[in-house]
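Please describe the entry underneath.
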Amino acid sequence: MKLLKTERENELIVERILHAKRYSLTLDKTRCVGCGICVEVCPREAIELKKLLKEEGEKAKPPSIDIDEQKCQYCGICNVLCPFGALGHRVNGKPWIAVVEAESFPKLIRDIQFDTKKCELGCVDCEEVCPLGLIKVSVRTPNGEEVKDVQSRPNKENLAVAVDLDKDHCPCCRICEIKCPYGALSVQKIFHGILKINQDKCPDGCQDCLDVCPITGALYLSEDGKVHVNELYCVYCGVCEIVCLEEGALDLQRTYIRHTPVRSGAWNKALEKLTSTKEMSKELRAKGLTRTRESVEKRLAWRRA
């Protein structure tokens, strides 16, 4: 067995090379926001969060992630739960997530619906407001040819709006939906929760949380000079709480995670870490009620038959 660790400017790769298989875990530094969700859920404590110090007068920097190639077991839990899609597992060069393949872990649900029939030709509002640059809007002819200058076209009836959305890296902040003037978008959040800022504990002039927030508008500086929360946009990643220098000034509580169905003790443990024992218990009760309802429905169907 051979263990490798390769670090470049924009990526970190750890690998385990066996006789017949080559496992790899890649961190895309351009997408990682330092939220620490992967650190919270890693069962082997193979991922470390490193806070970066700032010089006087500089903006706060998001924490960086380091992966221990000696500890990583390539289970894929970090890959599954990264809301920004910054981590990727591969086996022999092909995408593969062990815990998903074993049905012991769910996938995050990125529920994003785009009705391009409602879009007006030439509108690129959703593309411009996306804080991560994940949306590309174009106008195309019936045969798929992209039209660069819509206004110069004499016949616009046959033109249609096409949207290229990088869903795998979308944290579902809902900014595109809220800013769309035509109601063409519907976005369901992945992570639900509550983020509170205790203004009495915030140091005067401090805006470190605002500096590192990856979603433009989720935190904003008000006229009172304090940072406030716009929970319409917040994805509850938690990087703001990590960089906050004053204990108790920021309080993040995740209450729900949108995911595919799964029955797994490993998932229950991860859910408890990311939310709370109370919220995990709620999901277990909901699953129990669902199973009971399904059982009753099957019995009634059998009797009717």
The chain has three domains: 2-101, 112-187, 191-257.
